[in-house]
Amino acid sequence: MAKHIQDKTVLANGVAMPWLGLGVWKAQVGEEVENAVKAALKTGYRSIDTAAVYKNEEGVGNALAEAEVPREELFITTKVWNDDQGYETTLKAFEESRRKLGLEYIDLYLIHWPVKGKYKETWKAMEKLYKEGLVRAIGVSNFHIHHLKDLISEAEIKPMVNQVEFHPYLTQQELLSFCKEEQIQMEAWSPLMQGEFVRVDLLKELAEKYGKTPAQIVLRWDLQHGVVTIPKSVKAHRIQENADLFDFELSREDMNCLDGLNRNHRFGPDPDNFDF
């Protein structure tokens, strides 16, 4: 179990991925995203998660270029957007992302959503990028079990990561079990329930019990489930607070209580029913 901010999980292909990262969804390009990335790196984060559709890859790239962190210590994730899915268009989109980030290679490249009739062709392009050494690991985002089974049935290389909405109101136990069986590392986006965690009484009670904040309780819960987590913030003190997870452990009983909050509630779209 993660005991330090730079502790890593090992993906199916042997690549090490930090358990904790900074998500930059909605962080504006320019100073906002650059300062967030710099604050994260200063705090000790080494994993940054962006996407083409966030329109801030360039800002992430600028911050990385100015950071005095060796490239091999960094773990940078980006994603191919739905409009760019397909074989040739994915290869082109990847080059664009790589250029904006200013990197020779990307650590993890994900299919952002399972676009029907397109994700298999997209995956072929991802496999090509992986074989050429332009990406250290490839994976998917927002894939249900049936999407994963469908992809794996024809894939040469199995996805190494599945990044999904995961929090105490959406515990996705079946998906988590399936991913563990298939050696696919699950990763949580929106772990803090788009801010709604502040309304959950149990989190307030546990925060008091452990001398932590409700946000830290949720993020620790993620890690103890063996799920990589990438909380998003643009505020330096929050970025610091979100990293302060490694000096305590939730009891099995408290983990079970948090699991019991599940109501299969999504704050984001359902991967079986999205129109973008």
UniProtKB/TrEMBL annotation:
GO terms for molecular function: oxidoreductase activity, acting on the CH-OH group of donors, NAD or NADP as acceptor. The active site is at Y54. Keywords: NADP, Oxidoreductase. It comes from the Bacteria. Residues 21-262 form the NADP-dependent oxidoreductase domain. InterPro entries: AKR (IPR020471), AKR5G (IPR044500), Aldo/ket_reductase_CS (IPR018170), NAD(P)_OxRdtase_dom_sf (IPR036812), NADP_OxRdtase_dom (IPR023210). Coiled coil: none annotated. Signal peptide: none annotated. The record marks K79 as: Lowers pKa of active site Tyr. Substrate binds at H112. Belongs to the aldo/keto reductase family. This is Aldo/keto reductase. It comes from Thermoactinomyces mirandus. The lineage of its organism: Bacteria, Bacillati, Bacillota, Bacilli, Bacillales.
